[in-house]
Write a structure and sequence with these properties.
This protein is α+β, with helices and mostly antiparallel strands. Helices cover about 45% and strands about 10% of the residues. The protein has 14 helices and five strands. The longest helix is centred in the first third of the chain and has 24 residues, at about 1-25.
Length: about 300
């Protein structure tokens, strides 16, 4: 059972990634039955004056466009760049990625207008020392030499990425919002049954502010992943003596079930000696994966993305 559960998790994870790719790509030209040039022309016409919440032409994704070009091209000694890479990785890499192209919570700095407009640290330096607390970026106490190495590394990375051509290196949050939010709301409150467990004025308030892009899609499709962790399923065990023991499910395999009692102690029971019932609110999400059409998935995600 444990191995089966691990395989199931891997399958759902792969499905989530595939869904992200499908949502990011949106409908293809072939699906419209139009030649590519005609389809693009039609899409462009539809996006002009487009109503808020209507599906967006994926060809206009910001992530597909090149980032801002360096205003003042700059070069730095390789030793300074290498020192900056070490300093950046240790100080900034967790949020912005080791290559400065975006990480867990920080944006892609190789597409940053501030970096593009910086001249030898005149903008990057002050940002490092003051931070942006409102966005979760702390201020750093760095020497002029350390700031200089980080500046050198960032400019070197930006130059390298500009030379690659094309703009897309990650799945931008805007790539995923290709559905119709109005249709998504109808599905959420109707056929999808989502409003039976969730409330846009309760647990989903600000959901699209707390999670963005892939993280939001992951939370929607496979909510057992991510932070904070969802509550563990509830389980009620009935012993041969007819005594009931309730708690949170800690683990389960082919032969045993482990329950966390209210005091947090783990209790293991042999399945063939008990009866048990598991109440897992997350199971509705797993069932929903088999019911979504592509359009349903796109539309619901577009609707959830409006709940900021």
């Amino acid at each position: 059972m444990a191995e089966s559960m691990r395989q199931t998790i891997l399958i759902w994870s792969a499905a989530m990634i595939a869904a992200a790719i499908a949502i990011g790509q949106g409908p293809s030209d072939q699906a419209t039955g139009q030649p590519a040039d005609q389809a693009k022309s039609t899409a462009k016409g539809q996006n002009k004056g487009q109503a808020k919440g209507a599906p967006r032409n994926p060809a206009q994704s910001p992530a597909s466009q090149p980032g801002p070009q360096m205003v003042t091209p700059q070069t730095y000694p390789i030793e300074q760049v290498q020192a900056g890479e070490l300093r950046f990785t240790s100080q900034c890499g967790f949020c912005h990625g080791r290559d400065a192209a975006g990480g867990e919570t920080g944006p892609d700095l190789t597409r940053s207008e501030l970096v593009a407009e910086d001249v030898r640290g005149d903008k990057i330096g002050s940002l490092l020392r003051t931070g942006r607390p409102e966005r979760g970026m702390p201020a750093f106490e760095l020497s002029d030499a350390d700031v200089g190495t980080i500046v050198a590394f960032l400019h070197d990375q930006k130059t390298k990425f500009e030379a690659l051509g094309g703009g897309r290196r990650v799945v931008d949050a805007a790539d995923l919002v290709t559905g119709d939010a109005t249709a998504g709301r109808s599905y959420f409150n109707g056929a999808g049954g989502c409003s039976g467990c969730h409330s846009v004025t309760g647990d989903l308030v600000g959901i699209a502010t707390r999670y963005k892009g892939l993280a939001l899609l992951q939370r929607m499709l496979y909510p057992t992943a991510g932070r904070p962790d969802p509550a563990r399923p509830k389980v009620t065990v009935t012993l041969a003596s007819h005594k009931n023991i309730s708690g949170r499910l800690a683990s389960e395999d082919e032969f045993t079930i482990v329950v966390l009692d209210p005091a947090g102690k783990r209790k293991t029971f042999e399945k063939d000696a008990i009866k048990f019932m598991i109440d897992d609110p997350m199971s509705a999400h797993f069932d929903q994966l088999g019911k979504y059409t592509d359009n349903d998935m796109h539309n619901v995600f577009a609707y959830i993305d409006t709940l900021k």
